[in-house]
Amino acid sequence: MDPELADLLPLFISEVVPVRNEDGAIVDLEWVYANRLMNEALVGDGQSIVGRRVFEFDPEYRTARNTREILDVIRSGQPVTFMTDEGRAAKKVGRVIKTTLTPTRRGVLCCSHEVTELAKARDKAIGEAERLKLACDHALHAILLSDHNGTVTYVNSALEELLGCRSSDLVGHNCRKLLGRPSLPAEEELLKEVARNGSFKNVHECELVSAAGETILTSIAINSAFLAGQTEPVHIAHIQDIRPERRRVAELNDALGRAEEATRLKSQFLANMSHEIRTPLNGVLGMAQILAQDSLTDVQAENVSIILESGRALMSLLNDVLDLSKIEAGKFELSPHPIDVRQKLNSIFRLHKPSAEEKDLSFRLFIDDSVPAYLILDCIRLRQCVSNLISNAIKFTARGEVLIAVKADPRSHGYSDLTVHVSDTGCGIPEDKVDHIFASFSQADGSITRKFGGTGLGLSISQSLARLMGGDITVVSEAERGSVFTLRIPAEIAEYKGREAASPNASFSSGGNEQKPDRSFAHKSAI
Question: By the 8 A CB rule, do 218 and 245 touch?
Fold first, then answer.
């Protein structure tokens, strides 16, 4: 090549020849040619390295990679290419140099050029590949890669462990080697989809066959992707052993079946026992009521009243247990129909008034004008919830007052939220016990049962009934200062078409006989 042309190239070009001793051993190298860029890189200032010995010029060249590669080319006569950031030229320009060594008649021709950006891109790609391989190798789920023909190209350690084999047993083989016979039709469909669309995404169950011949039920999430510059897809499969999951599902279904059967048997037992106990208990209560009407001594009258009180308490307990059993079994049915809300609440108020007066409590009922006259509700369950809240308020209040406040918040499409607040100035509930009072057979304190009586079922049943009606019961309470229980129930407004009912009283302090208006309702679900 013309030296002038070589000086114009953006390459570091030089030629070195071996310097041998008397025994023919190579003791040094000598530059016999160097272009302008090479001279500037090594000596500069218009000087030249031609005719100078390499090791004398810089002793570090004795152990440099360039020297080792040159000596190998001299011995083998074969060209070599490598990249390095070592050497004086590379260090001087602070770049990565790619060098090609070609054997010549006299020695070795060295051609180098800067490839720093290429080296950085290579190193970045290598780093990313190593990180991805690390993530795949140590993934908890099995991972398999295959080419577009289904030939396995990679498996991770999780798949090796799942199948009980080594990667060398799978890589290079078709992925059908892993599949059980029932899975082949599904695989054929996937291959057809690939042929149609060139790529796919699919999640399906598949049976794999382990090295020991065991069939393993798995869930395979498989999709295809393309490497940069490639026209054929790579198939990526994430494989999960779902046998433990299926066992858990079977165990849960079995446990659910046993629980449902136990609940059914319990409900049946409670219903039968309730009936069997209720029959003689009604006889006891009936005879006691008849006996109470006879002429009795004071002692006899007291004994009969104890029989009646105990019998009624036992009947109430039977009803609560039966209701709780029905609710737990999911067999509880509501029977909503139009009711006169004000009349019903006033009736409940009058029912509990004697108990409040007996304890010398201030007992008041306030019904806001926002409450519709008629709502479609289950009358019996509304009375059960409100009565329970009122009786509890009276029971746990030694002095002060019990107030029932009722309002309604209109909703769209003919519905209204009925809200009943029952507040008292009783013993209240400690903050750490509030969350427990709605649990079955639970009281705020162990001494409550001994002091006030009760089973702890009333609030639990009332809250369950409220939720069955689409509402809820909540409480705000402070120990020694009282409680406010709130019942909220959404209800449909029943349109009343008869004579206007008597104007609702804003407040009731006592009850009396009321004139009942004629009632007819214009509502599609009424009656």
Answer: no
